[in-house]
Structure formats: structure tokens, C-alpha cells
Design goal:
alpha+beta, about 400 residues, disordered C terminus, single chain, about 60% helix
Length: about 400
């Protein structure tokens, strides 16, 4: 029977630095050691190694047994694992020790070292799988946030366009109502002006005023022989319209009746027409609709894009990730632990000596008693009688 052992200790901090600095997966050296130890203790891990390396376990395979039964014989007492004390926090005092006892003909060194490497590789693959799942989940989360930001932008953009169009439509309706009211007002004013002119023309005809005149000039015209006099009038009252004379008033009335539009008489109408022309096309709405790459207009998504790019470009070589340090590998033993020949010889000699002394001590009383019987008088008399019988000596 032979014995081999191996010791595992926590990996150096720099071995796990790339993994821990990724901000995705945190695995301190002590936790990695415990994790590998749990894998070494796992039934599934041991069974998986047994199935993957059946050539190393030919000594445990017997006819009539299933693979699992053969594994049970190996797993029962072959490999013993000693985990570190959970109360210890010092990495230097943390370790995992694996001991294996095996019979002659079994390659225990290859089994123990291969099992350790298998468990470490299995746990490394598990960490890599966890990393892939975590990165994928975070990327999906970031994509969801970007989609939410994009949806919010689309809603905000659609709402803004709707508000702009609604505002333009409201302003257009207000201007059109104002324009209609102004035209109605101007038409009414024109009709009122024509009525005033009709009345003034009638008065001017009665007064025989054909040319524009003033009240003073009209009074002087009734005085014969008056010489031409230049007068300056100061009057704070409006001169009646009929003083314009029939000719001027009729000319204005004809012009008003021929007028087809009164828009030119009101400056506000030109302003309204200008505003209506501007409202025919909303340039801001056109620019919003012509955006091609709308993602660049999303607000508050720059950190999300930076994190997304970082995760996609995250490249950690998991094949070189050292979860633990193999402080001592299993080596070929110098000799068997069972049987110990020297110890057997020593014990044989010791117990032989004890047995010999015991036998000697037990035989001593019997020998002393037989000697006493031979020296007694009865024994001598019997011997002499025997000697006197003929042929006795020859028989003896």
C-alpha cells in the first residue's frame, strides 16, 4: 500500500487581478481556493474524472460491476481532502491537502495530479461560463436601456412635432380669422365712405360747390367786387366733406365703387399674409423628420454606450487563469506504507522473544516436578526391580 499527497494554496493576487478588475466577476484568492476545494470534494467532479480517465482505474474495475459501482469502491477511501479552517482569515495559513492511499499496480501519482488538474480546469470553465452569462445579461440590460431611451426619444420627438404642428395650425386659424375680420371691416368702411360721399355730393350740388373750397372762400364768393385777398384760417374743427366739391367727391366715389379689394389700405393685412406664408412649411418639423441617425440625439446614454463597448471588448484569457497555486504535487513515494518490513521484523522478534520466555517459564515447573519424581525411593526401588528381570536391559 502506497501513499501520496498534494497541497493547494491560494493563488497570488496578480493571478486574479484581470478577473477582479473587470468589474464583472469578483473572486478573491481565498474564495477561489474554497471553490476549488468544494469541486474536489464534489461527487460529480470525481465521477466525471473517473469516467474521463478509465484507463487509470483498471484495478478498480471488476466483472459484473457497473461503472458507478467501480467508482464507489475507488471513492470510498482512496482520496481524503482536508479543507482549510473557515475561521482562519490569513491566506498563508489557508490550504487544501489531498491524501491518497492506493495498492500496488495503481498509478496513484497520475490519478491525484490528474484529478487536481481536472477539478481546476472544470472550475475555471465554470468561472468562464459565469463570466459569459454575466456579460451577456449586462449587455442585454444595456440594450434594453438603450431601447428604452430610443423609445422615449421617439415619443418625445413625435410629441414635439405634434405640438409644433398644432401650434402652427392654431396660429394659421387665428391669422385667417383676423384677416377675414379685417376685410369685412374694410368693406364696411368703404361702404360707409361711399354713403358719406353720396351725402356730401348732394350737399355740394345744392351749394353749387364744384371745386374744393373753404367756408371763408365760400362766403367771399357771394360778395361782388371784392379783390383777391390771401387769408390764413385757423380752425380747430373738421371742415365738412362737401367743401371738397362735387367733382372731387364724385371722382372718389367712382374710385371706391371700382375697388375690388381693400387689402392695400391696411398694413396689417400684409403682415398677416407674410405670417401665413411662413406657416405653410415648418422647417423645424422638416429637420426633425429628416434625421437619419437618431441615436446620436439620445440624451443620457453616453455612459451606457461606453459600458457596452467596454463589455464587448473585454478580453480575459481564461485559459491562463490560475485559481489556486499547487504548492506540492504528488510525487512517486520512496516506499510503501504497508506492509512495513522492518517494523514487522522488529515486532516478530519482540513477540517471539516474549513467547519463548513465556514457554520457558511455563515449562520450568513441570521439569522440576519430573526430576523430583525420578529421585524418590519408590522410583529407585522400581528401577532395581526392573533391572532384575531378564532381558530388561536389552529391551531398555
Amino acid at each position: 500500500m502506497y501513499h501520496v499527497s498534494s497541497i493547494l494554496r491560494p493563488a497570488a493576487i496578480n493571478e486574479l487581478d484581470a478577473l477582479n478588475r473587470s468589474e464583472v466577476y469578483q473572486l478573491p484568492p481565498a474564495a477561489a481556493l474554497v471553490r476549488v476545494g468544494a469541486s474536489l470534494e464534489s461527487y460529480e467532479t470525481r465521477l466525471g474524472f473517473f469516467r474521463a480517465n478509465q484507463n487509470l482505474f483498471q484495478a478498480f474495475v471488476q466483472p459484473g460491476r457497473t461503472l458507478e459501482q467501480s467508482f464507489e469502491e475507488f471513492n470510498r477511501n482512496s482520496i481524503n481532502l482536508k479543507l482549510p479552517d473557515p475561521k482562519q482569515t490569513d491566506l498563508l495559513s489557508s490550504y487544501i491537502r489531498l491524501d491518497m492511499d492506493y495498492d500496488q499496480g495503481v498509478d496513484g501519482v497520475a490519478i491525484l495530479n490528474g484529478f487536481i488538474n481536472y477539478a481546476i480546469a472544470l472550475e475555471r470553465e465554470q468561472v468562464a461560463g459565469d463570466m459569459r452569462v454575466i456579460i451577456k445579461n449586462r449587455l442585454n440590460e444595456l440594450s434594453g436601456k438603450l431601447d428604452a431611451a430610443r423609445s422615449s426619444y421617439e415619443s418625445e420627438k413625435g410629441g414635439k412635432i405634434a405640438l409644433l404642428r398644432e401650434s402652427d395650425e392654431l396660429r394659421r386659424s387665428q391669422l385667417q380669422d383676423e384677416l377675414k375680420a379685417l376685410r369685412t371691416q374694410l368693406k364696411t368702411l368703404r361702404s360707409d365712405r361711399i354713403a358719406q360721399l353720396d351725402e356730401a355730393i348732394a350737399i355740394a350740388k345744392v351749394l353749387n360747390i364744384k371745386k374744393p373750397t373753404t367756408p371763408s372762400s365760400l362766403g367771399d364768393s357771394d360778395r361782388p367786387g371784392t379783390s383777391s385777398v390771401m387769408r390764413t384760417e385757423i380752425n380747430n374743427q373738421q371742415i365738412p366733406l362737401y367743401f371738397m366739391g362735387v367733382e372731387a367727391l364724385e371722382a372718389e366715389r367712382v374710385a371706391l365703387r371700382k375697388r375690388t379689394s381693400d387689402d392695400f389700405t391696411e398694413g396689417r393685412i400684409a403682415q398677416i399674409a407674410r405670417e401665413l406664408q411662413l406657416l405653410k412649411a415648418n422647417r423645424e418639423v422638416e429637420i426633425l423628420n429628416q434625421r437619419k441617425n437618431e441615436d446620436i440625439f439620445l440624451s443620457g446614454v453616453q455612459p451606457l454606450r461606453a459600458e457596452q463597448a467596454r463589455l464587448r471588448n473585454l478580453n480575459i484569457d481564461m485559459s491562463r487563469l490560475s485559481l489556486v497555486t499547487i504548492d506540492k504535487k504528488a510525487l512517486e513515494p520512496l516506499g510503501p506504507i504497508k506492509p512495513k518490513k522492518i517494523m514487522i521484523l522488529i515486532l516478530g522478534a519482540f513477540f517471539g522473544l516474549i513467547l519463548g520466555l513465556t514457554v520457558a517459564l511455563l515449562r520450568h515447573p513441570f521439569r522440576a516436578r519430573s526430576v523430583d519424581n525420578m529421585t524418590s525411593p519408590y522410583a529407585v526401588l522400581g528401577a532395581s526391580r526392573v533391572a532384575s528381570i531378564p532381558g530388561t536391559n536389552e529391551q531398555r
